């Protein structure tokens, strides 16, 4: 008997990492869930949250999550998506830019959605 497909979780990071701990917590949470391998996790950065993948993490609240946990997500093959309307990331981290309609379609198909 085939195993059922994994549940999916999209974590939306919209808070500014330079003034809020919320993006750091989102990344830490995503890395922990991805390591579990029972839920497929995707991070989507939008608005001020795009700084989390484009700016120097030394300027962030709790920079450890950006240098430790973000690479863990990439090692697990989890996608990092960026809102194309929020501007392209400065390629500090490998991301894929998607449009808002693409994000809405992904969100509608996801099992869970969290916003930080």
Description of the molecule:
With 116 residues, the chain is of the alpha/beta class. The chain has one domain: DsrEFH-like (Hypothetical Protein Ychn, Chain: A, 3-Layer(aba) Sandwich). It has four helices and five strands. The protein has helices spanning 22-36, 51-54, 64-75, 100-109, and strands at 7-13, 39-45, 80-83, 96-98, 112-115. The protein has a five-stranded parallel beta sheet with strand order 4-3-2-1-5, sandwiched between helices. The relative contact order is 0.25. The model has no long low-confidence stretch (mean pLDDT 90).
Short description:
This protein has 116 residues and is of the alpha/beta class. The protein has one domain (7-115): DsrEFH-like (Hypothetical Protein Ychn, Chain: A), CATH 3.40.1260.10.
Keywords:
4 helices; 5 strands; alpha/beta; globular; five-stranded parallel beta sheet; 116 residues; Hypothetical Protein Ychn, Chain: A
